[in-house]
Amino acid sequence: MAQKLNFLKESASQTAGPYVHIGCVPNFCGIEGVYPEDLGSRMINDKTEGERITIRGKVFDGTGTVLKDVMLEIWQADHKGLYPAVNEFRGVADANFIGWGRSPGDYTSGEYVFETIKPGIVPFIDGKPMAPHITFWIVARGINIGLHTRMYFPEEKEANAADPVLARIEHKVRIPTLIAERTGDGEYTFDIVLQGDNETVFFDI
Amino acid sequence: MKSNQKPVSGSYFPRDRVRQPDAYTPCYKTSVVRSPHKALISMNNTLSEITGPVFGHSMLGDLDNDMMTNYAAPGETAIGQRIIVHGRVLDENGNGVPDCLLEVWQANSGGRYRHAKETYVAALDANFGGCGRCITDDNGYYIFRTIKPGAYPWPNGPNDWRPAHIHFSLFGHAFAQRLITQMYFEGDPMIPHCPILRTITDQNAINDLIAPIDLANTIPMDARAYKFDIVLRGRRSTMFENRMEGN
Ligand SMILES: [Fe+2]
Predict the structure, then answer these.
(1) Distance (Å, whole) CA B136 – CA B143
(2) Do B52 and A21 touch (CB under 8 A)?
């Protein structure tokens, strides 16, 4: 018998269920007066540096139906590519940017919205640049474990072509599922498809 | 965090997908069309995954972790069995996770949620909202006070009921650690019948979601205690990693 490694095991995930709003965005679902505002509802303020952008989109199931009980979170670097995190050693991120946002889909349309800034370039493990990107995390009723994906920017054609994470994707035909559509000045649409022919690429991070 | 150490920045142990539920679990019908069919793309952690937002203790209100009173009229409390839920958030190395944000939500003692999409006939409790939150201390410890939620029926099979449970959302130190799970109560006869618990095939992983009664921390004549520890992904030490800090 060898020694035991004695690692603990990560707790198993369970679906966020249909009432995730109660715990995570109570003001959105009408439970007011407990918290002053919903966490993650404001990512930027007047002093935040960088190009203002709005990202909106919907999440579709395998039948093409829009989810109306989804919750999304995003995490991104500031305009210089620095994360507002305790383990960001490359510099100090913009103090007026928290880098994290949370959005429930609209009850009627299912559309989510994030008002943020365009992130800068963050290095990959080997120090080479990754294209500007935003990490997405999606939970909902029927999703047993949160899904991770990334949104890239359509105007960053060269950077996207050199991006080491996109390069990991064997089926190049799927890469467009990670690239948002630019619908106007600073306006992007990023739809997510959970299942089917046009299924979004999800990552095991 | 000790002042003479840099915060650890190693990448996280790969997620043990055998212990985690699959995406496609026909016993839980909603998962059938909401589950990716293509394989997840594995990637090594980059800075985008090993970093995460910081939540300060100063954002918390005095009653945030007291669901018994945080929605109640002054002087009133929610109806139900008074309980304390407490424990530690640990990582897979066995270390406490300090400054971890926990957000919890639950049905009232009759099994009814305060939500526009809720259809169960059980009565609402005017003094119960159903949300709470707290941030772990330096040792990863947290504590809530609430009332024990009721079981409730849901449209899946013709006669499916959820065991009593509390939903937990956890924000550790990195986006890679993000987790939502549910806590169950020791001895609940509905546990073996729950399709959502059955999405987990590893019985040990199920057992780890069931909180035991904790008589040692029960407050006599006031509130019973349940202990619930949660484990988030652990990370490698940085020493021999193929990554230069600052790059
Ligand atoms: Fe529930």
Answers:
(1) 8
(2) no
d(CA B92, CA A10): 6
CA B76/CA B79 separation, integer angstroms: 9
Alpha-carbon span B186 to B190, nearest angstrom: 11
Separation of alpha carbons A161 and B2, rounded Å: 42
Would you call A11 and B245 a contact, using CB atoms and an 8 Å cutoff?
no
Its pTM stands at 0.95
In a domain, A79, yes or no: yes
> What pLDDT is stored for residue A199 in this prediction?
98
With respect to residue B140, please indicate whether it lies within any of the assigned structural domains: yes
Query: Per-residue DSSP letters for B207-220?
Result: HTTEEPB-GGG-BT
Q: How far apart are CA A184 and CA B40, in angstroms?
A: 31
Which residues share a beta bridge with A123? A129
B117: CA distance to ligand 1 center in Å? 13
Count CB pairs under 8 A between chains A and B.
282
Tell me the per-residue pLDDT of A134-167, one tens digit each, with 9 for 90 and over.
999 999 999 999 999 999 999 999 999 999 999 9
B152 is a catalytic site residue: yes
For residue B2, what pLDDT is reported? 42
- Note whether residue B67 is domain-resident: yes
- Cβ within 8 Å, pair A10-B242: no
Specify the number of domains making up chain A: 1
Are B64 and A33 in contact by the 8 Å Cβ rule? The answer is no
- Which amino acid, residue A63? T
**B49 phi, psi to nearest 5 deg:** -100, -30
Task: Measure A187 CA to nearest chain B CA, in Å.
Answer: 23
The pLDDT tens digits of the residues spanning B70-108 come to: 999 999 999 999 999 999 999 999 999 999 999 999 999
CATH number of the domain residue A38 falls in: 2.60.130.10
Q: Can you tell me the mean pLDDT for B20-35?
A: 98
A27 occurs within a structural domain: yes
Of A139 and B245, the structure prediction assigns the larger pLDDT to A139
Give a yes or no: residue B45 inside a domain: no
Q: Does residue B244 belong to any structural domain of this protein?
A: no
The label of the residue with tokens 């913009």 reads A94
DSSP symbol at B212: P
Measured over the CA atoms of residue B44, residue B50, residue B51 and residue B52, the dihedral's sign is: positive
Picking from A6, A22, A94 by the largest number of B CB atoms within 10 A of its own CB, the best residue to mutate is A22
> What are the tokens at B185?
């109560």
